[in-house]
């Protein structure tokens, strides 16, 4: 089917997309690499010359580096844990016969469409506010002192907010996987006397493994870059500074572009390690 | 599931699922309800849930104070423009990769996806600087282009997976019946591709609408979309719950409605059909 002329036509049709993405990738990347080896401070005279790998060393040895890495891992890990565990349970529930399934599904999925700035603000003010928030009302109803969420348990609060946004995604994908589960196999196992727990662990869970991997990988990519939620809730205070946020502060707030760019290079490396795994899995799917 | 399920069991499932569904939806519901309250009722303790004097006052105040319509218009332009531009570039690319595959097609696809892994924060300053140099900081066209580039890999991938599912036999059958290239494209391929293109458009519009990192950092006044409009409520002044709720409702309503229509495509779109 592919003749010489259709190949040529295909190349021309692909060219704009390939060219644009190449430029989009290379230009900023090269600039970031360039800045990362220079002492570049726009507010203090601009480019102050070549400094070698000093920025890289300074970024890693700064007192905020490891806490930022730790916070990033806590948030990513926490949200993943919540969305996988509850995603599996929710998907299992939604897969059962019930009345109004379509409506329940819509209710569960809705948070995914809420823009991150809105969801962070609504949670911060209307739920986590220590005097007028819904949680404060509930705590007081039980005679307890309201929790000052964003200062007392900042990471937990952020994990809660971000999980609320990402649980729908995990649920939706796991539900799709559940629906393709072979019910005959389950019935056969049931007849052979396998307990519901055994059926879950030995049949359902292995069947879901592919979907779970995809949820983990896609969410990790997005969660490593979480920004808006921190921007409008704590602004990076109270130990909620992730690697992304730390770089953002270095570059835009303290206007130390060289240092921030070195951080950016680290972030790019980190994301690409994660991406490598993603590519393998998605790539396998292409061969099907 | 072909198994018969007792009504009792079904009722129990229904009850649990509805309770959990409503719990998850509650923040959105609460925001919408609060937007119709007066400020006093919005912070009443204990909270009033349904029996309050419904008012539209907050919506009026929000519009008056910050010109909601301008932000909305920016969101529509930026999300719509970037989606449209992306589709125009991606359709030919995905089309040729799906129908004229070569040995390198897979590598190109994977490479395209890899640009998605470039953390935005890592390249923020270069883009920021370029925007200043080109005089397009806080400019809608610049955001259209940037968001288009961010979503382009996803658009190409989605379209590719959709196009690949168009069976080649149908094409051959059409050719046997004497269809030329024009008929083939117009009457055979296009009708089969339209549903895929439509859901790609929908999903990318949603992604662009909600994108916050670039819009927050590259806009201030002229090109600021709803994501930035809402962020302006993060100041202590925004602690007026009813007004914050009205603003939030106005920001999410269009996309919530659109999202509900596209939920079926969402799974395929976001996982490139890897989960069936």
Automatic annotation (TrEMBL), chain B:
Name recorded for this polypeptide: Various polyols ABC transporter, permease component 2
Bilayer-spanning residue ranges: 12-33, 71-96, 108-129, 141-163, 184-209, 240-261
Main location: membrane
Ranges for domain ABC transmembrane type-1: 72-262
Sorted UniProt keywords: Cell membrane, Membrane, Transmembrane, Transmembrane helix, Transport
Domain of life of the source: Bacteria
CDD domains hit by this protein: TM_PBP2
Lineage, top ranks: Bacteria, Pseudomonadati, Pseudomonadota, Alphaproteobacteria, Rhodobacterales
SUPFAM superfamilies: MetI-like
Pfam families: BPD_transp_1
One GO-annotated biological process of the protein: transmembrane transport
Entry GO CC: plasma membrane
Similarity comment: Belongs to the binding-protein-dependent transport system permease family.
Topology term for the membrane: Multi-pass membrane protein
């Amino acid at each position: 089917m592919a003749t010489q002329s259709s190949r040529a036509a295909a190349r021309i049709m692909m060219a704009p997309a390939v060219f644009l993405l190449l430029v989009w990738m290379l230009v900023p990347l090269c600039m970031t690499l360039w800045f990362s080896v220079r002492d570049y401070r726009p507010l203090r005279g601009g480019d102050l010359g070549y400094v070698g790998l000093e920025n890289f060393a300074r970024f890693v040895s700064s007192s905020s580096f490891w806490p930022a890495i730790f916070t990033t891992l806590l948030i990513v890990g926490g949200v993943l844990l919540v969305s996988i565990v509850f995603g599996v349970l929710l998907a299992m529930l939604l897969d059962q016969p019930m009345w109004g399934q379509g409506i329940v599904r819509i209710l569960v999925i809705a948070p995914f469409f809420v823009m991150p700035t809105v969801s962070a603000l609504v949670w911060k003010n209307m739920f986590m506010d220590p005097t007028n928030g819904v949680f404060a009302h509930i705590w007081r109803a039980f005679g307890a002192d309201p929790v000052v969420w964003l200062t007392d348990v900042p990471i937990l609060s952020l994990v809660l907010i971000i999980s609320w946004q990402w649980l729908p995604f995990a649920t939706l994908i796991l539900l799709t996987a559940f629906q393709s589960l072979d019910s005959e196999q389950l019935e056969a196992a049931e007849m052979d006397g396998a307990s519901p727990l055994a059926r879950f662990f030995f049949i359902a869970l292995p069947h879901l493994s592919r979907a779970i991997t995809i949820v983990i990988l896609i969410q990790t990519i997005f969660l490593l870059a979480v920004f808006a939620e921190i921007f409008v809730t704590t602004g990076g205070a109270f130990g909620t500074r992730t690697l992304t946020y730390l770089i953002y502060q270095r570059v835009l707030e303290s206007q130390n572009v060289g240092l921030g760019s070195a951080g950016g290079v680290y972030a790019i490396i980190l994301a690409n390690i994660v991406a490598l795994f993603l590519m393998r899995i998605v790539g396998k799917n292409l061969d099907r | 599931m072909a198994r018969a399920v007792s009504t009792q069991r079904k009722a129990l499932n229904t009850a649990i699922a509805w309770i959990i569904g409503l719990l998850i939806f509650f923040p959105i519901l609460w925001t919408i309800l609060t937007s119709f309250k007066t400020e006093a009722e919005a912070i009443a303790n204990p909270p009033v849930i349904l029996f309050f004097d419904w008012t539209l006052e907050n919506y009026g105040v929000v519009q008056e104070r910050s010109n909601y319509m301008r932000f909305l218009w920016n969101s529509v332009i930026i999300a719509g423009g970037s989606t449209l531009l992306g589709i125009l570039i991606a359709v030919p690319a995905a089309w040729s990769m799906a129908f004229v595959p070569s040995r390198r097609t897979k590598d190109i696809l994977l490479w395209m996806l890899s640009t998605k892994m470039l953390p935005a924060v890592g390249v923020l300053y270069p883009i920021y600087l370029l925007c200043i140099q080109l005089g397009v900081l806080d400019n809608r066209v610049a955001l259209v282009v940037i968001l288009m580039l961010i979503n382009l890999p996803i658009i190409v991938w989605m379209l590719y997976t959709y196009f690949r599912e168009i069976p080649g036999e149908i094409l051959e059958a059409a050719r046997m019946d004497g269809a030329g290239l024009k008929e083939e494209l117009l009457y055979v391929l296009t009708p089969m591709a339209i549903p895929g293109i439509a859901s790609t458009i929908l999903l990318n519009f949603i992604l662009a609408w909600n994108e916050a990192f670039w819009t927050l950092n590259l806009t201030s006044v002229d090109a600021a979309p709803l994501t930035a409009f809402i962020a302006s409520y993060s100041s202590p002044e925004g602690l007026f719950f009813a007004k914050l709720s009205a603003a939030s409702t106005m920001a999410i309503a269009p996309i919530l409605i659109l999202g509900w229509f596209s939920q079926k495509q969402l799974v395929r779109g976001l996982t490139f059909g890897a989960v069936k």
